[in-house]
């Protein structure tokens, strides 16, 4: 970025910092432009700085292991996808509450899934069967007749350390990242000048310490209480049977009441966990919130002691008591919550002006929440089925002759749906590729006409590659349909699993009376589901290992978190941390302090996700600092992705507010870019901020300026395009009218359009469908409306 091998970090740390060329370390006072007695900008190149935040998203190999937290990240994204409606505050709070409850159900599913593996499959079924335990040597001390640990309750109490340890690990990671990422405060500024159309300008938006602390306590307590409930369910029927003990039954009832009371308090408390963005949330964590994890831990310890109490005649047979009903109810509750989120979103969507509406008729958040629940269920069912196959490799669990009964039937049905879900994904991918191929063929004829200034014949292969790049980039605009189909498949998978489990048979046995092809498909799905899940886990582990060793793989993983972890943790505290709560204050502090100390002006050049960070940072500045800043964005997803999926924060109204808040803003985009796009909509008032589509490649064939074939850049190398230097110089001149640098000449013959400019109206060589029509206005700084 700085185009120099000698660079120095001038502020920040190894995680994220500001860098300069070593020759440009000293700041100089900035007199007014044209001041003959001052140093002024005359004769000087702009002073360049680069902000690097890559260590926040792809710092070490552990980032790749955050892929396992993907359901939590999706639930958190659903919180920020609410429609941009001018509705009463209670309507927005209702939507947020439903998303938080959905996120809480994912934590319960995680704890219950860990219990299904450790308590049910290992401690209850395999360790309770001498044949299974003998095949797994490390379970011999816990098998019947193995000694003190052979009693079922004691095995269960020991196995409860696995889900409890997993929850405590997530609690520790959340607290560790909370202190590292979410402790940066934005620069102080007057509240009165914040734009009412830009929610990201609120002073407390990027300071989430309070909400994450409260959510962390609630989710930790919910997980621990789920483990306690699982321990109590194991001996519930036995203690009340003819071989039971009255005192143990009474103690179990008391612990069940305490567990239910704790869960009821958690559910009631969720309505109090909303974010406070108007001011920085410095409120201390409430005493009740701090006490809930301790209360849940005490109940869990008491439940473990109750389970480990001596019951010499207790034997384990079949599946774990109550597990089947619990998972069936949990899946139905998650489906109902996702539907409720959709209904709340539709209510907000109807109140939203037509030009401000987001993707999927406002149902983007509900679809993503449903995908989070579906992915959580698939991971839980797949892991449980894979562990069951590992413990009993002789035959399918639950089948005649099997050593163990296997996981709850609901999880077996969910695992069997993995191949079907994969088939849906492959079908959607194939449909997208076919659509792109057809569109590319239509565009081929117009490719050569987009370069009217070149005297070279059309090359079919060259035209095919360029048209194919444009067509593939256009698939990004089909993402809403893709998300809709995937969420529908997740809903069908969950309902089908509950309905299939209600038959009381596994998928293969339920299809025994069906025609032979259907029975073969059922058998294949049941066997293939667990293996696919095992392969997915191995793939994630291999990705983490490669990311630890290979910097390029680490950067690839970081791209995923650039998008998924931009937003603060407002629904799930165990989601990967929000890097923007460190990056946005960094940028806003630097902009505010440098303009105030030097009196200088800034052109913020931001590419891709950097444009989102730049916009968020500019919104955090006061009006005096914003007047000294111009924006140059390129490859920006502000409108194409963020405006579509997060309309309340980056919709057309918010981008118009950003246009008014900064003196000038230009946006460069290409038709071959699958991420970036125009920042102005067709109905926006005032001058357009866009310049594009830029020619990509910059030359079709071999020319005097480009004697070698030019590559198709797509989303990269915007700074190498001639339009970048032109627009940067124009923005500098808009901020400082006497800036001496001239716009670089491109050396094109008179009358020919520059690369990226549209041919003049009426030109017979003007393209038809390729490339998409761009802004016909002459390049230059955008003047704010009014």
Automatic annotation (TrEMBL):
Residue ranges of the region described as Disordered: 676-707, 742-786
Regions crossing the membrane: 97-119, 156-173, 218-236, 248-268, 292-309, 325-348, 360-384, 410-434, 482-504, 516-540
Residue spans of biased composition, Pro residues class: 756-786
UniProt cross-references to InterPro entries, sorted A to Z: AB_hydrolase_fold
Keyword Cytoplasm belongs to the record: no
Keywords for the protein's UniProt record, in alphabetical order: Membrane, Transmembrane, Transmembrane helix
Name of this chain's protein: Integral membrane protein
Organism per entry: Streptomyces boetiae
